[in-house]
User: Fold this.
Amino acid sequence: MNAKTNTTVGAGCLLLFSLPFAAVGVGALGMVVWTMGTWLSMQSWQEVPAYIDWVNLVSSDSKKNTTHHVEAQYSYRWEGVRHEGDRVSQYSADDNVGSFHQRVAAELSEHRDKRIPFRCYVNPKNPDQVVLYRNLRVEMLGFMLLFSLLFGGAGFGLMGAALYGNRVLREQQALQEQYPVEPWRWRKDWEKGVISANTKGKMVAAIIFATFWNMISAPLLFVVPNEVRDGNHLALIGLLFPLVGAILLGVAVYKVLQWRRYGATVFEMASVPGVVGGLLQGRVRIPTMVQPEEDASITLSCVNRRTTGSGKNSHTSNVILWQTEATLPRNGLMLDGRETEIPVSFGIPTDRSSTDDSDSNNQILWQLGVKIATQGVDFLAEFEVPVFRTAGSATAGPGRMPGDGPLVIALDEAGNPIPDGNTPDPAKTEESLRSAGILAEPCVGGGITLLFPMLRLPGMAIGALLFTVVWGGSLAWMLHGQGPLFPQVVSGLFLLLMVYITLDLCTGKSRIEVSRTGILVRGGFFGLGPVRRLSFAELGGLDLKSTLQVGNRLYFAVDIKKLGGGTLRVANRLRQEEANAVVRTIETAIAACR
Assistant:
């Protein structure tokens, strides 16, 4: 059996494998639609008194959990005729989502014991159709929505991968046969050296996902108010689904605006591939005129994409192994007719890994990202670029060692070279500090003070606050449902950690002072932490290390190494250029004060 036959068979197997997932997703969506339809029809049913004759909470134990459902018998009168019923709610199957069944059993038992009339809802067109609870269970509806999204998304996603991926794999196999020792030529875009940012595909995907999510979650906007009026305040958690839908819709609209403004952006490589121990060079071409408000930010990242688990338990994470960042001055963008070009060149260290996607569960990818702040919609683009170890890896780039840092080669509008970003520039250092929200003030008698104010990273602080609130709401839901103790304890401990991080982001304040007496550092909530001092005799140097990854961006900390061992952290949560600016500022002040 040849490779092409194997590919076809594999695609067919994947298509068959996807069918059950798609069917389950469609089935869950059908259950949501049926539940909503039943709820709507029950709103016209008439309320009459009912007497509870018998009630029982039935529990079923399994190895993983315990599920419940309520059985009951009751009597009621309709137009003078006595009827009996046993339907409790729309939900007849066992489940353990929330505490609905326990609450219902307790409420019905109380009315049975005290012989207090309860209420039931009777279909006036057919008095034998009756139900005690006609309200929607928002938590159950949300569970079915997520079930539909996860399984339906997986099923139809696998279908698309099987149908589209089969053609792509055939083309890739042909290229592998043609270029067996040149893996950078196994993809058409890499082989041509023109790589698309795929902004249109991302826009379409965002529109489809936002539309699907909002179609399913929008009815909750009409259901939740009725539930709250009936005393089920926990139903307010259901509003999280429409809130997420609004956010997804905003993301989709933003991507549409980006596409309309910037069109199909590509990265045109100067030579293929980028070389480990050499350079990655080329130019980003934007088919429109870009008027930047700030310098362009360009990053090159080596990413380890890992997938663990399988099926519904699979999880994919992107871990940045190495990242370097450069800025291109606003006047460094090259305008050619109706097109904007961003010339780029990065040195790649000799100890980095080559691109490797042979194992889909453990891939090494290289990503080039470009961001330009403009009036209105910012320009954002990301490219997956080929970086390999070649015969040229043994030699360094012209005039510099690869990996010494980012190198952006560009000319200004007058045709003059723009200075290398690795050369210390006091004005650039001051600009980097200002962009990070860091205040620099001279000390009396020489030296400098760096002030890190509160809410220096407002976006990160707001994100942490929202996440903490949502996590706290989820924990409250878990506590209300009286579930297993261990998950509640773990969630509670994680909530405490998130509260600490949120407080640090919102109220954290620090001060670094370099003067003739040495180095003074003070931080903490509202800047009221302990004062730590270090003499120049104890100074062993400055260390820059990555400590945090947010999305596709690394953040760095600056530590002072002590000669006797140990470190003193002086700054945290800085972008690479900002961290370099802090290091240069401290080094300059130390040299002047010693």
Summary: The first strand starts at residue 46 and ends at 61.
